[in-house]
Structure prediction request, 464 residues.
Amino acid sequence: MSGIPIQLDYSMCMESHVGAIGGISELHLEGEIPTFKAALCRLKSGIEKGEIGFWNLPESLETLRDVQEYAASVPESVTDVIVLGIGGSSLGMRAIAHALGGPPELRLRQQGDRAVYVADNSDPWFLSRLLETLIPQNTLVVTISKSGSTVETVAQWLVVRRWLETALGRRAREHQVFVTDPERGVLQEFAVAESIPFFAIPPNVGGRFSVLSAVGLLPSILCNFDAKGMMQGAKELADACRTEELSQNPAGMLAALHVLHQRLRGHNQHVLMPYADALRPFGDWWVQLWAESLGKRLDRRGRWIECGPTPISAIGATDQHAQGQLFMEGPRNKLITFIEISSAEKDFTLPKTAGPLSYLSGTSLTEILKAELQGSAVALANDGRPSLTLRVARLDARHLGALFFIFEAATAIAGEMMGIDPFNQPGVEAGKRLTAGLLGRPGYEEEGQTARRAMDGDQRHYAL
Ligand code: PA5
Prediction:
């Protein structure tokens, strides 16, 4: 696996390092090769037939060009970008903004760079403060929804549209752009009726697999993040993950190790623990991807299996002082994936110090972080608890794109290996339908009745 932007070190999840109770063997991996090959083959066939679109996104430079062209037409007076969207329509952008732009509270605006704010909930707490702070004349609102009708998103859009219209009248339109399904959905109808520009999410790309479509590219380019670099890193991984040689396929290995640990060792809680503050929202993006893709009631044959690992997001070294205790001594049901960033763009080397802290003289903060990761991995292994480490040279756009892709591909492969459909989300949709019914959306009357009946049923309240 040399030459690709991410290295996967899986020694600490093998029997040789953690023992037979917590680890798996090379024989187990070999035995999994046919299942992996069959899974990859199904994915490839879906890609060829045009049913699965995310794998080819890093190559669709046409979208990149269209988005660049549009972004170039946005006036410099626009200094702020609001992204409205939820789940797969916003988590990726939040991860990009954090990793490439810095923490929101400190985000330094370079000359001409724009600030991006992601509003993903119908809770007024954030949106009210945001609209009090921003100036409509200087704001562009990017509303993102694959279905074009998710209530959290369209409700926020109605609020923000009124905010724009109150200040700008008919010019409000010029401060809006949509990213949505090209053929259906409420946003699509409004785009046509109100001449609001829009970018398409390809119909064969699901929300949580869409970060490398206009969903992530448009806000990134508007805010001057290196979208091209991200696509480049993702493409390198997409190419590497095509091979049927399991040991040479980084996403295949990531998937197979998780599937085997879950099946053979009962490790059904999967922790992603980057030792990088910049990847904190990346963890949230991964949690949604892993949970929504792999948590399924039915397998592909329609059998009732109720499967799926529980994803947990943690940050090193911070969580060594929080969840770490549980990981080290709690139930033996976890497989931890560490992410190590080998070098920082800006680092501190500790000054020469005498006395009890002299051992730190000349050490960099990155070296300390690395030692903490290694300390955690070894402590876990010594107690028979498995982990993996993904090594990334630095956290720039190329490596971020590669990280997005390896997890997307691993999710798709793991789902296929588990015999489920990783691309649907019937559970999420069930909740969406009942909410629509409760809110009186035409066509959802029956769901409304069902939900009301359940809510009005035998309720017990405890007065405190
Ligand atoms: O990954 C998914 O499919 C979901 O998380 C969706 O992204 C989320 O429900 C939002 O849906 P939509 O983009 O249709 O508004």
Q: What stands out?
A: The pocket of 5-phosphoarabinonic acid is lined by residues 86-89, 145-147, 150, 153, 206-208, 292, 425, 428 (CB under 6 Å). The two ends are 59 Å apart (CA to CA).
